[in-house]
Inverse folding.
């Protein structure tokens, strides 16, 4: 076990390289391949940087960016759980808690506790920063699906009602303005002229 | 031309999806494929989050993170220029300036000017935040090369002297502690027992 703080941090940074190999269900916008969780995390951080003014209440954009950079890191151990999956949420959360303990446990203090706390804050989605981060984590794949003509909704036979139910509350809670736009786009996507 | 600020921001966020298809020379640590510039940007932001205390002088980690998130966005238009490339730096910089103007020009104000200024600050590498960001942008591929047993150095026939010359000053300027470690690793990599 490494006890030099710099080397511990580098061990962690090397370990999370594997997030680049965790494949999500969403495609890239040009549909050339599916997105991985590392580039997804980069994209969400850019969403937070640019869309912070649309949060329900003022948020600390720097905290939201950090939260989104690390929100998927547990997937290095447990993989991505698609939104339209039938996995038990309890089993999934238990596995993710263990992964978070192992991965953030590679870090020295205070970073180990700080990053674990930020990850838990995102998962629990009770603070304003976390609610906004969660909303963005739903907005991005929703927009990908709309732009690519259905994306993961087609693959999973997801209806308008299911989309409104699975994305709506989370986006609405973090950003009513973004949900207003997303709802319009979704209604149009599933609409009679589709 | 879109004039609604939210839609302008979403247009920009969709445009930069293409950074996920810009392929760098560096491999992933498991050597399964080459890294793309979007996931590289995510990884560097994580480096900044964890290694901020090793900067030459105290830096604003939040600014460094933002700078690294957007430092490669011009590659959406001009592609990646490898460190060990023979392209003319002047031609390259001219093309990147044009790409930055087009891409950040998709955004409304004040974000358009703010992000362009942050990108230029990184490129010019005169502020302490930018010097540290530039150092990390060299540290990460250097570590990839060491860990993967040579990486892009093997591909390009790069010697110890060239590595010290092409990585050393930039890393040393932003983080003497990181350069001290990197130099040890590089000396060992090219050493007699290699
Ligand atoms: Ca996820």
């Amino acid at each position: 076990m490494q006890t030099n703080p710099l080397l511990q941090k580098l061990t962690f940074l090397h370990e999370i390289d594997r997030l680049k190999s965790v494949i999500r269900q969403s495609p890239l916008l040009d549909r050339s391949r599916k997105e991985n969780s590392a580039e997804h995390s980069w994209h969400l951080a850019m969403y937070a940087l640019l869309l912070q003014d649309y949060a329900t209440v003022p948020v600390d954009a720097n905290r939201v960016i950090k939260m989104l950079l690390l929100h998927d890191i547990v997937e290095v151990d447990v993989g991505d759980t698609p939104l339209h999956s039938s996995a038990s949420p309890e089993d999934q959360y238990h596995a993710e808690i263990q992964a978070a303990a192992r991965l953030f446990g590679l870090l020295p203090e205070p970073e180990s506790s700080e990053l674990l706390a930020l990850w838990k804050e995102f998962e629990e989605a009770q603070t304003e920063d976390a609610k906004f981060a969660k909303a963005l984590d739903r907005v991005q794949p929703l927009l990908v699906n709309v732009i690519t003509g259905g994306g993961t909704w087609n693959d999973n036979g997801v209806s308008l009602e299911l989309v409104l139910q699975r994305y709506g509350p989370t986006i609405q809670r973090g950003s009513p303005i973004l949900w207003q736009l997303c709802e319009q786009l979704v209604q149009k996507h599933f609409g009679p002229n589709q």
Q: What stands out?
A: The pocket of calcium ion is lined by residues A 72, 80 (CB under 6 Å).
